[in-house]
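Fold it.
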Amino acid sequence: AVFRPPLYMARDVLVIGCGCIGLSSGILLLQEGYRVTIWAKDLPPNTTSNKAAALWYPFHAYPADKVARWSTETLEYFFKNILSDKTSGTLAQTVYEIFKKPNPADPEWKKHVTTFRRPEKHELPPGYVDGYAVDAFIMDTDLYMDWLMKKFVSLGGVIEQRTIHDLREPMSAYDIIVNCPGLGARELCNDKAVYPSRGQIMVIKHNGLTNSLMDDDPTAITYAIPRINNIVLGGTMGEHEYHLEPTEADKRDILAKAAKLHPSLKNVEVIQHKVGLRPSRHEIRLEPEWFEGGRKLVVHNYGHGGSGFTVSWGCALEVVQIVKQNQDLVKRDQHEAKQDAKDAKGAVKLISKM
């Protein structure tokens, strides 16, 4: 008899979506020995991920306890596997969230992150009296997304640009599907809990700013993120807004807020404006769902809001865990099951003779 590996060792998996969530999930599945194909309507550099400010910091994503865990796992993964690669477009950096008034409350993720601290007075820009500081990272999204694509393909992954109108479409070819459509889940999964939170950013010429600053004032969200080749200023949080064109009002507002955030940002050279729609939801959906009487497994992984990069690898690790835990429960037709059993017996006989 010809030896065939057990089904789980050569299982085909389809990933829907080619943003940072889909690519991270696909990479870890490939490293676990699965054959992985991505189907996506948009590919880098034309994804929402490419338009993100992109730094590690839990931001407008829920539930807080799970986001804290996924964020911590992502932080650990970056320091262990990515930051040392100079081609990844990532950079280790201290990230500050700063406050104009004393804020005694600690963030949910503090207990998971050993480098969390309160900044010293000399670290705070004028007008700020308190804050959080953490040793984290930022990334140039175009460089990092390109790195993710190359990593996925180098591991044997296949990427196809195609639009999916119904989640059942790929089920004729795949038993296991990892669903990472971002905002597309609103229509693809008929999940009306998913909605856009519009974010406009401004890319400026680097001026020597060394660490990321965030003022999460709900009435005037402001941040400055120095990257390898430039600095990103933001931002906006337009819930349920769909328009993708930069507005003059937002441009003026971002510049005005940045000038108040740090003295070095009062006179800047603007390079580019970008707009992206964050895939917001009351909580991230990361769970299995069965179709066709248990014959098809879908693992949903969407609704990450403003924390996609921050939770990406933590969520991907959980995706792999869910797939591994459920793959052998996927029902197969009787002929395939009998053939696997027959070949497995043949393999045992073959091994016993060796």
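The helical segments are 20-31, 64-81, 141-154, 185-188, 248-261, 308-326, 334-353.
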